[in-house]
């Protein structure tokens, strides 16, 4: 069935919006909000952030600027952005603070312990779009989950899902920030939800204070070049030496700004069994992890977001963490074993790590 302008005029769009939100919940999302797909009002702040170089080596963030701020440029015909929330904090993961306080264990960001969320969310968003089509006839839609230049936090904020905290992440007063965001762009002229206009952070600076590398340089402004998540995931080259010690045992991402945020006292754990830890990555010894060869790494991270960084960056991150671990024969020997099969990038980090334990590559 082809939807026409006349057909739109016969729809009860308010009721349709309610049905869409109900269907999103049925599909497993924890919330759905509808907003405008235009984020032009955020362009100036974004361009100022780029001008300072805070994006580091993420050159893709400088491209497709018109598409980034206008949903209709990104997906022709788009009138609304339906933002959805999916909680991801695992139920059975090892205690975060205890893991960070044990320098012999690798810390993996909570979102990456289980299945990669991208395909799961995109599949559900696409199903939501198809279900809407069953109700109203053909409509033009497209699902996004980190797959295009979409200002997801700004869209979610505009649709009333929360506010952007001082750590730049979206915060919800009843759900904290342990959640993924996704979007369904549509050409349906749905009624929009009022924006979330109240910033509840107030005078709290917990996220800024606890950041190990002082990456939150102003309220809502993160210098990616100092951020451990950027350094361990997005950055492919050598990690600056002055940031290696503050990284501690964080080998993939960093959660400190969320872990110590007061609003995450209200967070609920995920309902998704697929987000539970795989391969015991919530409490795995660093010496075990660095012994994985590339084939083991690819096998053990199959279906995980960790796989995207590749074995070399994984080894680089582990070398830094082992440099920060207590000096033991096991740690030194693990580093030496890894060095025998390492390329230049990893070898340089292993040599730094050995030096932290009083050894040189010739020892």
From TrEMBL:
Where do the 4Fe-4S ferredoxin-type domain residues begin and end? Answer: 192-221
Q: Which domain of life is it from?
A: Bacteria
- Annotated [4Fe-4S] cluster 2 binding sites: 211, 227, 254, 257
Keyword Oxidoreductase on entry:
yes
Cofactor list: [4Fe-4S] cluster; cob(II)alamin
Main localization (coarse): cytoplasm
Q: What is its EC number?
A: 1.17.99.6
Q: Which residues bind [4Fe-4S] cluster 1?
A: 201, 204, 207, 261
How is its cofactor bound, per UniProt?
A: Binds 2 [4Fe-4S] clusters per monomer.
Q: Which Gene3D superfamilies match?
A: 3.30.70.20
Which EC class heads this enzyme's classification? oxidoreductase
- Catalytic residues? 146
Task of the protein: Catalyzes the conversion of epoxyqueuosine (oQ) to queuosine (Q), which is a hypermodified base found in the wobble positions of tRNA(Asp), tRNA(Asn), tRNA(His) and tRNA(Tyr).
The record's listing under HAMAP family reads: QueG
Assigned protein family: Belongs to the QueG family.
- Assembly description: Monomer.
Identification of the protein by name? Epoxyqueuosine reductase
